[in-house]
Specification:
The structure is a homodimer.
Chain A: H1 10-20, E1 27-31, E2 44-45, E3 55-56, E4 60-63, E5 77-84, E6 99-103, E7 115-118, E8 122-123, E9 129-132, E10 142-143, E11 154-156, H2 164-172, E12 177-181, E13 185-191, E14 195-196, E15 207-208, H3 211-221, E16 225-232, H4 236-249, E17 252-256, H5 261-272, E18 277-282, E19 286-287, E20 293-297, E21 300-305, H6 309-327, E22 338-343, E23 347-348, E24 354-364, E25 367-372, H7 380-384, E26 388-392, E27 398-399, E28 404-409
Parallel strand pairs in A: 5-6, 13-16, 13-17, 14-15, 17-21, 19-24, 22-25
Antiparallel strand pairs in A: 1-12, 2-11, 3-10, 4-6, 4-7, 5-9, 8-9, 18-20, 20-21, 22-28, 23-27, 24-25, 24-26, 26-28
């Protein structure tokens, strides 16, 4: 199947791809302590309120607020000190009118108390008596039960990625296990007569497999589980068999073609034979990465990436990562981390096509500078030398030196 | 030891802390395939050049460029086609004057050839003869040996974090193992009479340990290895023994105090007893997190964090992460990922103090909006509801609605 003459812009191509996937949700229960970076499979509700008891937010004296009304430096309220609230236990005290109790930050309010006076606003001239120099309102310096989270409240939506704060929040509620989406299995298959495994000595004309490993790492970062199916020569039947087996065992299949046009054509034909509807997009209006193949075979995404390692990583960022997010059920994904920087040189580009350019960040007098990392080669070390990528939108004929751009960090 | 009266600003406090650490570099050799996110312990040099043979960057015909000089549409150069270059093998051909060979993208240039003519600029009227319609310069459409990387060139500096591109680059060079800094072991100890493990049912006045887990996750993200030493009651001698043992077994020790002032004072005294010089900073001019303790005991960083889970995470971001970067030897760390957004409301702040405010990102008409997540509680779900943090610098008395701020993503 030749490349289509009409190339789709990346966002349209992505819409076609995602629109044809039939995701099968896989769910597993794991320990919360192992759940960093995973995605919730169901909303999480609070089994208890937080805090679960009325807590003091300061060091001072628990009081009945009405007892302090009108108190000031020249006319203090005199309260009888009846004890101290222990940390980590019931107060064990009950305040009557005119009484107070010593309390520490985080301590549980005694019965009868409805506010806490900060120690800074008290003095004590006689034992067992506290002079309150400032009035407190009901509830002042107190966290009410459920003020952070009410019992039954949804605290994490389904499809939420678990960050350090969520891990802590689950533990605060005693939720030591959590239901998460299983990591999608992504099969990786390299084709190309010139490609050999990294551990092999190179013969003349041979290059080492880069894409299985750089893509594997990218897939890990996006929450997927890379599964390598090795390197296959450019023979239709062996590639087809290996691809069918990989697709059976995985949720997504990525085939990176060799660098020659015939290797890419072979890859496309094999992908198209794997299931319905087959190849949906052959060629995307983007540089690098034009010869990208997007397919869905019997509900699963199959993506044919160009053999060039830079193209493969850029295109995987545009298409593989959104597929992995979809399969994990990520809702309302946050924008990709980026930094604003000023371009150091003009970047020409062809109107109508989206371009991605590798840049290196430097410190400028006013914020960051983005210096393009050029290399006609588009080889992998272009990206090693870069901190991130800049997008030149299709409606631009380039970007100008001094212009502010967003650098998407790699 | 009471809190110092003069509070240091966070950058000065960090300088004092890092300046007193005596990092002992631990190095290990690991498989490159497992090295994502790890940090190189030594510079990596290329054992071979890349590419390792002269490669065509296009599909076309390998030629001696001098044979094409002056060629154009009306006056083509006629070359004798002597064969095809196979992929992944030596060319097996040698071009004499007036000869050419079919070559594919990535193919090895034959002996005698010094350029490639794109197939689009050729035609063929007779078998074994190619008409070249455009001249090529020497080296055109060819990647020279070592054009991406020369043999012996430093390709990754010491202290470089390995991203997907670096993993691919190492594999391209056949480097299937790599020397990286060992992950620093970070001991985590919680103190506080009111703190219980997450799996326990809460009694009156008790709260669950949040910090060991939220901090553990943050440490993992920063390349460290969290080691939990449990929860200890506020008794000086048992805390001192546990802390000394943890410090012996780890590269960094973090003690989170309970919420009461006495728990914080106890923590400070214990830390000061662990080694020389002991506590360097007690109290930082930042909100949240003022009661932070920074110490170095016999060369190792010991950090006392406030028990409040929000303070603990904010302060760990300011002090623990830079320590972990230093221990891993990270050079020239890149700026933290952030997004520019416009504030939705005024944020008041006290001049002279650095403030960190949790915000939620929303889509606005012109880019992102940052909406503060308020909560007098400073409890963990404030951070769960937030996408990141905004810094109010010490020289500001607040930020205004509509102002553009950097949101540091959490």
């Amino acid at each position: 199947m030749p490349e289509f003459l009409e190339l789709l812009p990346p966002p349209d191509a992505l819409k076609v791809l995602l629109g044809n996937i039939a995701p099968v949700p896989h769910v597993e229960q794991i320990e919360t302590i192992d759940a960093l970076g995973r995605v919730t499979a169901a909303p999480v509700f609070a089994p208890y309120p937080l805090p679960s008891f009325p807590r003091s937010t300061v060091d001072g004296y628990a009081v009945r607020s009405a007892d302090t009304f009108g108190a000031n430096d020249s006319l203090p309220a005199y309260l009888a000190l009846i004890g101290e609230v222990p940390m980590g236990a019931a107060a064990g005290l009950s305040l009557l009118t005119g009484q107070c109790a010593l309390i520490h930050t985080g301590g549980m309010l005694p019965q009868g108390a409805d506010a806490v006076v900060m120690v800074e606003f008290t003095q004590s001239a006689r034992p067992a008596e506290v002079e309150v120099l400032r009035a407190v309102a009901p509830g002042e310096n107190v966290l009410k039960v459920g003020e952070d989270v009410a019992a039954g409240q949804e605290v994490i939506p389904a499809g939420g990625r678990l960050r350090p704060a969520e891990i802590g929040g689950l533990m605060a509620l005693g939720l030591t296990r959590v239901s998460v989406a299983s990591s999608p299995r992504v099969g990786l298959l390299s084709s190309g007569d010139e490609v050999v495994p990294p551990e092999m000595e190179l013969g003349p004309g041979q290059v080492r497999d880069v894409n299985s490993y750089s893509l594997g790492a990218l897939i890990q970062q996006a929450g997927g589980l890379p599964v390598s199916y090795g390197i296959l020569p450019d023979h239709s039947e062996s590639l087809r068999l290996a691809a069918a087996q990989a697709l059976l065992e995985c949720d997504v299949l990525i085939i990176t073609a060799g660098s020659s046009a015939s290797s890419r054509d072979l890859t496309s034909a094999v992908i198209d034979s794997l299931g319905r509807p087959g190849v949906l997009v052959h060629g995307v209006d983007v540089r690098p990465g034009k010869p990208t193949i997007l397919a869905v075979c019997d509900g699963k995404a199959v993506i044919g990436l160009p053999g060039n390692p830079v193209s493969a990583l850029v295109i995987a960022g545009l298409f593989v990562i959104p597929v992995l997010h979809m399969l994990q059920g990520i809702q309302a994904d946050r924008p990709a981390p980026s930094l604003s920087a000023r371009l150091t040189t003009n970047l020409p580009s062809q109107a109508g096509r989206e371009d991605w350019v590798a840049v290196r960040l430097q410190d400028g007098l006013q914020g960051h500078l983005a210096e393009p990392v050029f290399g006609k080669s588009n080889l992998i070390f272009t990206l090693v030398r870069a901190d991130g990528m800049v997008r030149i939108p299709p409606d631009a004929t380039g970007l100008e030196a001094g212009q502010t751009v967003e650098v998407y960090l790699s």
